[in-house]
Amino acid sequence: MNFIFAPLIISAISSVLAALIYITDLIANNYGEVNISINNGKKDLLVKGGSPLLATLANEKVFLPSACGGKGTCGACKVKTLSDVGPVMPTEIPYLSPAELNDSIRLACQVKLKKDISIQIPEELFNIQQYRARVEKINDVTHDIKEVHLALPESMTISFKTGQYVQFEVPPYRKIKTPTFRAYSMASEPAENNKVELLIRLVPGGIVTTYVHEVLQEGQEINVTGPFGDFYVRDTDATMICVAGGSGMAPFKSIFKNMITTGTINDRVIWYFFGAKTSIDMYYLDWLYALDEKYPNFHFVAALSEPEEGTKWRGATGLITEVMDQYFQASINKDFPLEGYLCGSPGMLDACMDVMKKNNMQEDKIYFDKF
Amino acid sequence: MTPDLNLMSLFIGSIFTSNILLANFLGMCSFISISKNMQSSNGLGIAVTVVLTITGIINWLVLNYILIPTNLLYLRYIIFIIVIASVVQILEMIIDRVSQSLYMALGIFLPLITVNCAILGVALFIEIRQYSFWQTLLYSLGSGIGWWMAIVLLAAMRKKIEKSPIPETLQGTGITMITIGMMAMAFIGFSGMLTVQ
Questions:
Q1: Cβ A90–B86 below 8 Å, yes or no?
Q2: Is the pTM of this model over 0.90?
Q3: Nearest-10 crossing angle of helices B117-128, B38-62
């Protein structure tokens, strides 16, 4: 009879202990309903107290970044607290700098909700949502770059800063057994808040790019999450030196379209350098040259590094870094403050950084999106 | 059969000569990682002592009034772990509610302790050595104090070591392991005077 008896004893002991925990939890851990006020009342949540802030917020669909899932080992879930939430835990101290401690920054996973609190989180965290988007249209813009237009569900909109990106989820296909995620900059402008446009270049052997180029069909539904990223146009009047290659065009398309829509394109000087190998890799030329002609402060320079013989090419020839360097010497007013915006492959970015630094641009004024 | 042991020598022995950490090498993980900081070491030491004493007694009760009468001794590992985990949970909730400062000093270490093998080790020693209630109480308390003392000693030494010219390859855990080894030799050196079993 032991085989019945033993589990019974274990169950009995476990139940007694579980009951004890439950009772203690009810009595000792009952903080009633507490109110979380986020960003000075921008959002108010009435929740059950007694749990860590991070988990409570996640339940309410406010997603703070967290890599460890609330164990206090990654230090990603930092929030600024505006009201007293109790003393700083020793478990938090390794992740907080003295400046952050002074600023009442805390780790959300270590802050237990015991009373009404007020916190401040970056505005963009409100915006991060998952969308079940429908593929509206797929256009070929070059032989290996596709424009993917996604329509968001009717009830949802996306609010983002130009230059930010979304996570694109590819479901398992062919030999790939798990979903794969890649980040793509949005090429659409914030004014079109019910759609997302991406430029996706085929990378030989790439899981996501192969899927987009060979499997993805118009009308299909796909998950995107966003917006993320700190590559966006800084609100200054410094001259923008923008450099892109390949599908690095995407954030700049979004940035320039948005500037046209909001009428700010002539507010500051913009230099846009776009580099490609041969003329078949070039795209959007008509649109960009038209902008160049229409707006006196907008300058577009396209460069081919290996132009084919015999085809007519109106732009510059040479590596984009060399071309940019020539313009630095000849045309760009270096007495005026400059800001660099780079989007392209790591190799191109590093080379551009070198040229920009050589021309006395400050490193902390060069913003980039590496992919 | 309960071993014939003077309670006092059991208590002293469990602190020094049969130190749960340095003689049995139980509870090493938090011992090494927390001992970087004196204040945390102290807090963890107290927490281990409290939890060891309480779970030691409860496990003794469970052992003698449930497991032995029902002839289910082979379930002791599972049962001891369940008891330890639940007691730690309950303790944490109570401390959190009762005193914020006590929680700051002890409470945050409690979840760490659930998986501290010294706690389970003590419960199993109690079973193997067939301690009586009072022996259990003093042995658990003594082991806790011994653990506490060892981590505080190590934290103090590490503070000194930090400022010493240690060869680069030995810095951090390397020199700590060597230090622990030497501490263990020093403690075990006295084991001829008092043997706990």
A1: no
A2: no
A3: 40
